[in-house]
Amino acid sequence: xxxxxxxxxxxxxxxxxxxxxxxxxxQIEFPYTDIGQAEExxxxxxxxxxxxxxxxxxxxxxxxxxxxxxxRSRLSAARMFGFIESDRGSGVIxxxxxxxxxxxxxxxxxxxxxxxxxxPLFAAMYEKNNGYNLPPPAALERQxxxxxVPEKQKERARQVFQKSASIAQFIDPTTGRFVKPAxxxxxxxxxxxxxxxxxxxxxxxxxxxxxxQYHPFVQGLLDELPASxxxxxxxxxxxxxxxxxxxxxxxxxxxTKGRIVVSCPGEQTPTPKEGSASDYE
Length: 281
Prior knowledge:
Structural class: mainly alpha
């Protein structure tokens, strides 16, 4: 006697399989890395490329493989938080205004709040838990699953959510409640920490990608610092000379008594004159 299969059973099995496959997909977007790592990528893009780079360039600057899972996760997270835009055709990655804000010390807090709320899962979790203490990990994982995160990804989603909430200061330090932090509006006159565009100017070495208002003497010192990639090979004797100049300027500007000692092994340092501004060893 032949075994026969009812066509409706085949259709049912296929539909069930398709449904299971659909349920295994993420139904709500969330990043696989936290906002802090996305911020690091944005800062590297600004510091090393002035805000624009090819994918392979940026991966190399971050000491990662352009095709590796770690870099791809960070790239996807930075895009989801709104820090970068990318042209898949050309492979060029560009910083956004939000990305520039998050690497600006004066605008960082507000940028983090906005970026956190751009993530669909995080925004949904905010609506669900706003004003309350976050529940234990197991309960949080049940929540993210209810919102559309697959079972297999619930732990990762919960961890990234909690870490990002902590970095963006959605966990109130006094009460422990999950609330949106208060952000002080930035006045234009206070915005002295704006990010410099890399326009190809040779004077922009990349060592000082952020403009601040300092005394001209201090600014002159900062301008003498080598680029970040040259720090590892900066001779210790030159470092000591820079520090001595800094000591002289700091003492002159502060008008305080005391001595700032800068010494270098094997080097004979000059003895300062009594009462001189450059009172160092």
